Amino acid sequence: MSLIITDECINCDVCEPECPNGAIAQGDEIYVIDPSKCTECVGHFDEPQCIQVCPVDCISPDPAHPESKEALLVKFTKLNPA
Ligand code: SF4
Ligand code: SF4
User: Fold this and answer.
1) Domain 3-79 belongs to what topology?
2) pLDDT of 6-60, one tens digit each?
């Protein structure tokens, strides 16, 4: 499941450099996560790095993009070819 940033985002830019998949970018008003690149950090870290660093806890799972851990691992492999 991709994560999503809510409108509580304060545009602090802390999360963007922490994403191992380059999935986070500044959007028109707040930061946004590209669901095609977010693996919940599966393959890289045990916990989503963006959630760990966000000072206002405005990042959560996006029910619009349900994915199993296996699907996230497949996505990780495609994003990070050996
Ligand atoms: S959970 Fe990981 S891969 Fe997804 S946006 Fe956050 S830092 Fe990037
Ligand atoms: S860390 Fe949180 S508040 Fe800061 S830019 Fe990212 S989502 Fe927004």
Assistant:
1) Alpha-Beta Plaits (3.30.70)
2) 999 999 999 999 999 999 999 999 999 999 999 999 999 999 999 999 999 999 9
User: What atom of ligand 2 comes closest to residue 30's alpha carbon?
Assistant: 8
The ranges assigned to domains in the chain are: 3-79
pLDDT tens track for 51-74 = 999 999 999 999 999 999 999 999
Instruction: Tell which one of 21, 60, 65, 72 to mutate to probe ligand 1, the residue whose CB is within 8 A of the most ligand atoms.
Output: 21
**Which residue shows structure tokens 């994403």?**
19
Q: How far apart are the first and last CA of the chain?
A: 23
Query: Which tokens belong to 30?
Result: 């707040």
Pocket test for ligand 2, best of 19, 59, 60, 62 (most atoms within 8 A of CB): 59
Residue count of the chain: 82
